[in-house]
Amino acid sequence: MLKDWTAQEKPAQEEIEARLEAARAALAARQMVLKEKKVPVLVLFEGWGTAGKGSVLGKVIKNMDPRFYKTETFSWTAATGARFPFLHKYFVRIPQEGKFSFYDGSWMDEVTKQFARGEMSVDQYRSRLNSIRRFERQLVDNGYLVVKFFFHITKKEQKKRLEQLLEDESTRWRVSKWDKWQNKHYEECLDVFDMYLDATNQFNSPWFFIDSQNKKWAELQVLEILVKNIDTALENIGRSAVVLQNTFPLKRMPLLSEVDLSVKADEATYDEELKKLQTRLAELHNILYLKKIPVIIAYEGWDAAGKGGNIKRVTAALDPRGFEVHPIASPEPAEKSRHYLWRFWNRLPRSGHIAVVDRTWYGRVMVERLEGFCSENDWQRAYNEINEFEKELTDWGAVVVKFWVQIDKETQLERFNERQNTPEKQWKITDEDWRNREKWDQYEVAVNEMLQKTSTEFAPWYILESNDKHYARLKALKILIDVIEKRLKAE
């Protein structure tokens, strides 16, 4: 792709100057329109070392309102990078609605650098490419404009610029070991870049090559491409994205109506069994920490199903320094103005730690679906997007355990009334709980569809029969222990 690219003829300097003035004004005007229309924009500046990415970026943002853009740079080390999933540091820094984020180097730089140096296997490289394609597609499908620039210069021009920078003590620091390595292995890097660009050139987030031999010409190319892409994005506001077919292997789940809720724990041995299971989970937590294996425990279920009590029995077994519980409520403004998974990427545990999430990303296909907080196209796409998210987590090495806490309608009513009539429990019952109860049948349809479409082999659902809370608590602990032991055995 890059090897076959031919740069367009550079205009005369007078023409460049005139077009630059118009393009700068156009971008400044478009920025305000994007803010009003709440379109977030992500711009990637990639390319050869010394190709002028930083200087062009400085020129591009010069006439923009600095309140509504950010420039981001990224560094990666093996010691810190592995504590979170590959995409974590990029996803948590995506822009809010109506704002720009300019990335000076990004996931391309990280991946190609490791692959070119032989620090990543072919299988790992392919996995990274899949992650990147999914990430960029998800952003675009959820309303982001993603514009990707690759700054290209010849080997001869790169060498000349490196020598000029190295000659001056005040600019020597700008030349990295990677820049020098690139020029020495230019053809090898060209092959790696070409392969990467071809693999990630998607119709909704294509690559734009910038002839970087001349700085003003490079700036003009970037500005005019940005303006054209912004105009296209503004024309496409409100258009539905394609709902992709799930490609991950699924496990069959029963309908909620098929779940036997008559099961009960043996009350005579409950306390003894609970203590035994908690002791074993505590032992496993230590091993997880030593082996740096992260665990994510996701709880969903009916109101008053017993999620809180279940979580309390699980966390009672854990070292408080190694876990965190995240109760998820309605999104805050900063969360609502970004991709719906953003707030969950921000709550992921470090390797070796445990995150317990009380209400999860599945709100997209339940409450948001039924209450009209997102479009039908949004929640239909979300099944696959969520499966992709959980695949990222398990590919990183996380153990993902998802519980649906199930009760029947009569049990819920009994617990609602108990809460209503017990002063110290009244905080647990809200008008919203009663409203949701009126939509029980609609929620049941949504939950059944969710279980069928997102119970993957790498992150299956487990149903906790919770008419008897003691039974559900013991079952949750048993499942956690079993899943973790299997993972440790596989290690």
Would you write up a description of this structure?
This protein is α/β, with parallel strands linked by helices. It has 20 helices and 10 strands. Strands 2-3-1-4-5 form a 5-stranded parallel sheet, sandwiched between helices. Strands 7-8-6-9-10 form a 5-stranded parallel sheet, sandwiched between helices. The chain starts with 12 loop residues before the first helix and ends with a helix. The mean pLDDT is 96.
Brief description of this entry?
51% of the residues lie in helices and 12% in strands. It is α/β, with parallel strands linked by helices and 491 residues long. It has helices spanning 13-37, 53-60, 78-81, 88-91, 107-116, 122-141, 155-167, 177-184, 186-199, 215-235, 270-290, 307-315, 333-336, 342-345, 367-371, 376-396, 409-421, 431-438, 440-454, 469-490, and strands at 41-47, 69-73, 100-104, 145-152, 207-211, 295-301, 323-327, 354-358, 399-406, 461-465.
SSE layout and pairing:
Layout: H1 13-37, E1 41-47, H2 53-60, E2 69-73, H3 78-81, H4 88-91, E3 100-104, H5 107-116, H6 122-141, E4 145-152, H7 155-167, H8 177-184, H9 186-199, E5 207-211, H10 215-235, H11 270-290, E6 295-301, H12 307-315, E7 323-327, H13 333-336, H14 342-345, E8 354-358, H15 367-371, H16 376-396, E9 399-406, H17 409-421, H18 431-438, H19 440-454, E10 461-465, H20 469-490
Parallel strand pairs: 1-3, 1-4, 2-3, 4-5, 6-8, 6-9, 7-8, 9-10
